[in-house]
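To whoever is on call:

I kicked off a structure prediction for a single chain this morning and the downstream step that reads the tokens threw a length-mismatch warning. I double-checked the sequence; it's 581 residues and nothing unusual in it as far as I can see. Pasting both halves so you can look.
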Amino acid sequence: MKVSGAQALFKALEGEGVDIAFGIPGGAILPAYDPLIESGVRHVLCRHEQGAGHAAEGYAWATGKVGVAIATSGPGGCNLVTALADAKMDSVPIVAITGQVPTPAVGNDAFQEADITGITMPVTKHNFLVTDPGEVAETIREAFHIARTGRPGPVLVDLPKDVLVNETTWSWPDQVDLPGYRPTIKGNMRQVVEAAKLILEAKRPVLYVGGGVIKAEATEELYELATVGHLPVVTTLMARGAFPDAHELCLGMPGMHGVYTAVTAMQKADLLVAVGARFDDRVTGKLATFAPNAKIVHIDIDPAEIGKNRRADVPIVGDCKDVTAKLVAELTRRQDEAGIPDRSPWLEQLAAWRAEQPLRYDQEPDGPLKPQYAIERLRAHSDGDTIVVAGVGQHQMWASQFWSFEKPRTWINSGGLGTMGFAVPAALGAAAGQPDRRVIAIDGDGCFQMTSQELATSTTEKIPFVTAIINNAYLGMVRQWQELFYEERYSQVYLSYDVPDYVKLAEAYGAVGLRAERPEEVDAVIEKALSVDDRSVVIDFRCDANEMCFPMVPAGASNDDIITGPEGLQPQDDPAEAPIA
């Protein structure tokens, strides 16, 4: 059967089970948009290519499938770069399809030409420039295979206009043959045995759980490991929901704005079992002082991560699901013979820290609205299946701290790259992928203004979700750093409560706009927002601009120097000496 390259593209996407793609047409990609009319793939017309990329990420996060974003050449592809970098850092499987100028014009600075494969090489897992329409189907198969296997990540396929227009004979490859790509899935059993030995010897063990556990669908195996071994668990910002917060072994989130017990437990541990985590700087603080007395078991699908920041005593390369299951079996066998070690002193110490240093804030009945209170009330009115999507900044940390996550894939955020503007389009993608579940984006006023135009997409495509803006009239996290480390010299961080008027802006986009300015208004506004199911809702929570996010470990400082509240702050002698975020 003869098909054009564009027809081959959509037949290949259908062959990969793609049900939805997010994108914007343009000159070079235009031939692909003609066969789209007859395709079974639903196209969501976004308002910006970055929004399309983040929507594909949100879809992938929420469903576990590969997200798809489509853009034209030049500026279209360039506008995807931020989303691709975000997906690379957070191991999100997406395939980006970009148009390119015709092959004879490539390299001639043609209209809307950009070397998108060169530009995105550092921020994709792999990318392709297709020069023959006969290679389209095979390339799409390879792209999806690379994106979803091993350590997941973004893959870009660049399609010149003539490749999309020219004809080929349709053929669907039965299998993918990539001789140079062989991710190690099965963990080495010898190393698993050594890990089990270290766990049984440890008096103060901690399971250090990263986002790789969720990507590997290994949460059930993790639960078994923790409960079989009586091992306390910390879940990083990327792993919230991998282990239920309500469980007595859960210590919460570690890191720069992690809870005291999680941060301190890692510092005092004699063994860290890192599962799908990468010892990033936000978790370790000053690396030289991180968990100084702990031996390390490091389990990761990506061999490049093991030993990158901290030497592992037992390195295990493999899929988290496979390795954790093997570790559960080995630990169970050994404990059946020798019994479970008595770790009651360690567990009692952790319980004492939890009681002494809870997360806290002070919401006075007649005082300004605290952001933590708004988030807690949102959680109180939501069920355990609600998907929470966060932007980046103080509101992101408060959401992770004050929302209780009991299931995987109920928390979506930009962790590694820290991309402002992530929440609204990612929530759009999550809602498109999980249309029967409530999706709530918790965003900041600074973040929201970067991608709020995707509310138009929500309205026209009938993909509703709720956006709760924690509006403190500032770039809040930057303001906090200027207050703490720059002698309250606030430079270029004030945004204003009133510009724009978020209620009117929401209404202009076809959404419902609501506002709460006082604590006593919060519950009624949330109830009204959650009663709407046929369109998106934006809530403007006008919050206290002076509220800071604690606990906090200053960047570059040791986790031993964690600040639990404003009373622990020490004045900076010289703001020039402040650590850089």
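Update from on-call: the warning came from a stale cache, not from the record. Cleared it. Sanity check on the structure: The chain has three domains: 2-169, 189-356, 371-550.
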